[in-house]
Amino acid sequence: MPAVGDVVERGAPARIGRLRRWTRTLRVAWWLGWQVESNWTDPLRFFTYAVARPLGGALILYFMYRVVAGVGRGAAVGFFVIGAAFWPLVVGGMFGMVLGVIGDREHWRTLRYIYTAPISWRAYLIGRALAQQTSSLAAVPITLVFGIFVLQIPISPGTVRPALLTAALALGIVSAIAMGTLVVSAALSISGEAWRMPEAIGAALYLLCGVIFPVQVLPGALRTASEAFPFTWWLEAVRRALLGPGGVRSFPAIGDGAVLARLALLAAAWSVAAILVFGFAERRARRLGILDRESAF
């Protein structure tokens, strides 16, 4: 009978090997997602498109806000400019996941080959989502620079806290991946209409999670629901990291540490829920034989 130490010694390299395969799948899936996202044109034109779309959206919101509220400068404008700049990361995480399933199943018709390949399918889907988020991330600094110099939002080296911003961004990306996993779990059982799910859910969360206005203006029930989503706390942490104490806040009575702690707790809770729900949806799709069923959509 082998000793316990021998089992551990053989098991550790196996775990390391699985981790390497997982990270390799993640890296290759990211590269594939990036190619799918950007190979329709030359790099300069793609960069222009990736920047112009979110920047145009932020300008539309700015002029709407200026007409309705009569405010064109200051911390209030910084509130929704930051929200508009960072929100595409959430939608990109959801859309990348769904594209990894619906696109491969309906358009490329490669889902059955990818699924049966000796790779982690979850790592593949996460890589596709990260590629979509990378595309969205390119516009964030451009939008912020435009906001600082043109809209005069109060961001300066004295207000930026890099440690808080880095932690918030990392937890925000994890939360977006978790939400994307939940969305793709539903997409496994839906035909062509699954294409619309990321944008539909993103639009609902856009209003619920305080992207363009503080959640305190929401009715009581919606405000309570908003606090259950990690993106509400993520945007609050990002705004505090960029605007400093003078910025408009959704939760002025809660300290920075408590905001980050709630974000971390919700990101962990939603990630666990996403793993469980995805596992159930995957097993159900396999049992019913609908995992690679095409709808000719």
What can you tell me about this protein's structure?
It is a single chain. This protein has 297 residues and is mainly α. The protein has one domain (12-288). 74% of the residues lie in helices and 0% in strands. It contains eleven helices and no strands. α3 packs parallel to α7 (162-187) and α5 (121-137) crosses α7.
Q: What is the string of helix and strand elements?
A: HHHHHHHHHHH
Oligomer: single chain
If helices are DSSP runs of H or I spanning 4 or more residues, what is the number of helices? 11
Low-confidence parts: 1-9
Question: Sheet with the most strands?
Answer: none
Q: Which of globular, elongated, flat, extended, rod-shaped describes the shape?
A: globular
Number of domains: 1
Please give the share of residues in helix.
Answer: over 70%
Task: Work out the number of β strands.
Answer: 0
Rg, please?
A: 21 Å
